[in-house]
From TrEMBL:
Protein's name in the database: IMP dehydrogenase
The keyword DNA-binding belongs to this UniProt entry's keyword annotation: no
Any Pfam family the entry gives: CBS
Record's keyword terms, sorted: CBS domain, GMP biosynthesis, Metal-binding, NAD, Oxidoreductase, Potassium, Purine biosynthesis
Catalytic activities: IMP + NAD(+) + H2O = XMP + NADH + H(+)
Keyword Oxidoreductase appears in the UniProt entry: yes
Originating organism: Selenomonas bovis
Domain CBS: 102-163, 166-225
EC number: 1.1.1.205
GO biological process, one term: GMP biosynthetic process
Leader sequence segment: none
């Protein structure tokens, strides 16, 4: 056996030591632009991102709603692959066809128009939101704002869904889209001081209809409703079994980039998949691969044709792979090792293959550490699962709101393809858990706060872009005693003190 001379470490064991910051080093001057796919020295990558964040290929994280919200902020979602080819392709298509909304005075819409008819109109126009005003201008008298969202009900009956639906509704009201009219919906909502009406359409999908009473507060949103012609970049997860059918469907739907979703990527299955895709669909189809945790694994996937390489085994917040199988490596050590090999590969071949650090990012500063250690971008599951835009239910437990979050290797997701080693087509044992995470609000607000911390730390390190950060960062391992020193200590927090009074 080979014994590594050093223990493997994770992000919480490292800190950045500040470097010189010039007067130009202010957060407003920091660029977080980063490559997503490989490129040759002197050339530009085919796809770049404005922020180094992608959302995890997970049922509880990346659907079309998440993808649109993240793309608006400059990142990319990878739509989860543990669903039918048709469903995944439909989600990709919805992101690509997404137009945020429009204002209409459509004379065909009256208070007697049914919600089903309005949803059909939204579908036809390709918009997800529509404001109906009397004169068709954003400032005109409002008849209603209608937003449609798709919810998959495949795993739960409607009643079970209702039971777990502990959103701020005073009382859960289901309306039938075919028979409820705009005026009836407005009555239901306004009378009961609710601002949402869960609505089921003919195909058993749950749609949200949102009506806002005071449109004048939302004039700006109204204007934003017309921000047309933009197409967002979206990624999609694939597996090493059904790629011959899944890949063409995803490409047809408009996927910009694919990623083989596997818990352990140093395998012949990945080489076969990469070769098949590049031979059948051309080198222009971009495919990431992984996950690996050492230089050897990186080299294997680089030579197999991966367009980016994902790092991380066993570090995900919902992951029990290390406990069940005893494989993995501390995420920081794995990342440092892989990034070193990426740089070596670049020197040898002139080809730069971006590295994605996947899983185990708990605090915002972990993201800066990962970027300083060499990651080109970060994949996050738990982080995004906490937001309004994640596909899971928000539940209230003991007065606090949580969102559901489950691993792809849990019995709930049953993503056996992710753990497939060529055996029976099933999940033999669980490698993930089903959990709750504290609800955190909107993606936009949270991402903005996180990135302002990242930019600020980069300035402390004298770095105005990610390449400079990798170059200039000074990282130190910390002792367990100094980790205690890093939090507030030896004081009584005022809010604790007050609550005792
Ligand atoms: P985190 O951001 O929640 O810490 O980790 C998310 C990552 O965990 C995913 O991108 C994926 O690589 C990994 N994952 C997803 N499901 C499981 C599991 O069930 C898992 N074990 O480890």
């Amino acid at each position: 056996a080979y014994f590594y001379p050093e223990p493997s470490h994770t992000f919480g064991e490292y800190l950045l030591v500040p470097g010189y910051s010039s007067d130009k080093c202010i957060p407003a001057n920091v660029s977080l632009k980063t490559p997503l796919v490989k490129f040759k020295k002197g050339e530009e990558p085919k796809i770049t991102m404005n922020i180094p964040m992608v959302s995890a290929i997970m049922q509880a994280v990346s659907n079309d709603t998440m993808a649109i919200a993240l793309a608006k902020e400059g990142g990319i979602s990878f739509i989860y692959g543990s669903q039918s080819i048709e469903e995944e392709a439909a989600m990709v298509a919805r992101v690509k066809n997404y137009k945020s909304g429009f204002v209409t005075s459509d004379s065909n819409i009256t208070p007697e128009t049914t919600l089903g008819e309005i949803l059909a109109l939204l579908e036809k126009t390709g918009h997800s939101t529509m404001a109906v005003t009397e004169d068709g201008t954003p400032t005109g008298k409002l008849l209603g704002i209608v937003t449609s969202r798709d919810y998959r009900l495949s795993r739960m009956s409607l009643d079970e869904k209702a039971g777990s639906f502990m959103t701020p509704f005073e009382k859960l009201v289901y309306a039938d889209a075919e028979t409820t009219t705009l005026s009836m919906a407005n009555d239901i909502i306004w009378d009961k001081k609710l601002n949402m009406l869960p609505l089921v359409d003919k195909e058993q999908r749950l749609r949200y209809m949102v009506f806002r009473k005071d449109y004048t507060d939302n004039k700006e949103n109204g204007n934003e409703l017309i921000d047309e012609g933009k197409r967002y970049v979206v990624g999609a997860g694939i597996n090493t079994r059904d790629y011959a059918d899944r890949v063409p469907a995803l490409l047809k739907a408009g996927a910009d980039v694919l990623c083989i979703d596997s818990s352990e990527g140093f395998s012949e299955w990945q080489r076969i998949t990469l070769r098949y895709i590049h031979e059948h669909f051309g080198e222009d189809v971009k495919v990431g691969a992984g996950n690996v945790v050492d230089a050897e694994g990186f080299r294997f996937l680089a030579e197999a044709g991966a367009d980016f390489v994902k790092v991380g085994i066993g570090g995900g917040s919902i992951c029990i792979t290390r406990e069940t199988k005893g494989i993995g490596r501390g995420q920081a050590t794995a990342l440092i090792d892989v990034c070193r090999e990426r740089d070596k590969y670049f020197e040898e071949t002139g080809i730069y293959i971006p590295v994605c650090s996947d899983g185990g990012l708990v605090h915002d500063y972990h993201m800066t550490l990962a970027l300083a250690m060499g990651a080109d971008f970060l994949m996050l599951g738990r982080y995004f699962s906490r937001f309004d835009e994640s596909p899971t239910d928000k539940v209230k437990i003991n007065g606090t709101y949580y969102k559901e979050y489950w691993g792809e290797g849990s019995n709930r997701a049953r993503n056996w393809q992710r753990y497939d080693l060529g055996g029976a087509k099933k999940l033999s044992f669980e490698e993930g858990v089903d959990s709750y995470v504290p609800y955190a609000g909107s993606l936009k607000d949270n991402v903005n706060i996180t990135l302002s911390k990242v930019r600020s730390t980069m300035c402390n390190c004298g770095a105005l872009n990610l390449a400079e950060l990798r170059d200039k960062a000074k990282l130190t391992l910390v002792s367990s005693t100094s980790i205690v020193e890093g939090g507030s200590h030896d004081v009584i927090l005022r809010n604790k003190f007050n609550s005792r009074e």
